[in-house]
Every structure is written in structure tokens, then in C-alpha cells.
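Preliminary data (for renewal application), 2-acetamido-2-deoxy-beta-D-glucopyranose complex.
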Amino acid sequence: MRTAVGAVVMVMVCLMMAHADVKPQRDFNLQRFAGKWYRVGLAYASPSFAPYRDKVKASMGMVAALPNGNVNLTMWDATPFGCRTKMYHYERTNVPGQFTYFSSRHNMVKDITVVDTNYTDYALVLKHKVFSRDYTQVALYGRSHSVRNHVIQKFTAFSLSQGFPRESILTPPPADNCPPSPSGR
Ligand SMILES: *[C@@H]1O[C@H](CO)[C@@H](O)[C@H](O)[C@H]1NC(C)=O
Ligand SMILES: *[C@@H]1O[C@H](CO)[C@@H](O)[C@H](O)[C@H]1NC(C)=O
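Predicted structure:
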């Protein structure tokens, strides 16, 4: 019994260390990160989200780099009620690639870490480092709707390492007409 408890504690300590260990992209460059992205991968283990897993579409996001180092992010989400636009304001921290924002939905401050990006093709972003089924997400962004297979594998491996069950790791198809055409996609 005692060793079992010890083992559980060890596993928990290791998991916590794994999360604390996530570092942002080295030499993160916000100017190069700005612009249009498609969220081609999403890991999200919230039970309330599970029924929507097969309905998710790849949202489009536009990252605007503000002069003070903060970010305005506009997302276009295809929902059952149509294409919805949402604005997010990310505040810089003194670690490049690391931001905070206030989630009005959950009434809490979350951190955003750009874990890995090469700016021209993909970006792996962790929202809320301390794992919580209800708050933590991993997003894979692509400059286009299709990213290379090894990038998908990197996203999947990272999400598994953060404690996401395999069935919560999604690569949704493109959204139709969101944002609305003429040249939406
Ligand atoms: C950023 O967002 C804020 C709040 O929505 C807005 O007032 C501001 O004009 C935006 N700035 C840019 C450059 O988009
Ligand atoms: C970015 O990543 C993609 C996919 O791995 C790769 O094909 C491309 O060459 C990379 N670009 C740069 C500038 O490293």
C-alpha cells in the first residue's frame, strides 16, 4: 500500500515536472509569428467538449503583433450557428513566446506558450501549462490547411506527453465558408 502511494506520488511529481519543463520557442520573434494561421490540430480533453469532437473544423486565426509586444488574435470559428468571430488579447510577459490572457469564459488568467514554430509552416501552442482537463489545450497552427505528416506527429507526441488521451487529439477538416468568402480560404 505504502509503495503504491509512493509510486503515485512519484508519477505526479514527474508529470508536474514535465509540465513545468515546457519552454517557449528559442529566440521567439513576434513579427515573424504574426499573420494568418489555421488551427489544423486541437487537443482538448474536457468531457463537456467530447460530444463536439467530430464536429470541429479548422478555425482561422489572425495574429496582430502590437507595438508593445502584446498580441491581438482574431479567430473565426465554424459553429452550428454559423461563422463566429472572437477576439483575444494576449499580454506579453518578460519571456519571449510566453503570454497571458484573461479568459472571460472561465474567469481566470491563462498562460499561452508558443512551444515550437518555424514561422513559415507550423506553430505548436500550449494554452494553460498546468494540466487541467477543462482548461488546458494544445493547438497546432499551420500557415495553410495542410501541414507535413511529421509536424502532425510532433503535435500528437507533444499532446500525449502533456497527458492528453489519444481520442482527445484532433486534426479537424477545413471550415466551409468561415470566414465568409469571396476569398475566405
Ligand atoms: C487590439 O484590440 C483592441 C481591443 O479589442 C483594440 O482596441 C485595438 O484597436 C486592437 N489593435 C490592433 C492593432 O488591432
Ligand atoms: C518549416 O517546417 C516545414 C515542415 O517541417 C519544412 O518543410 C520547412 O522547410 C520549414 N521551413 C523552414 C524555414 O525551416
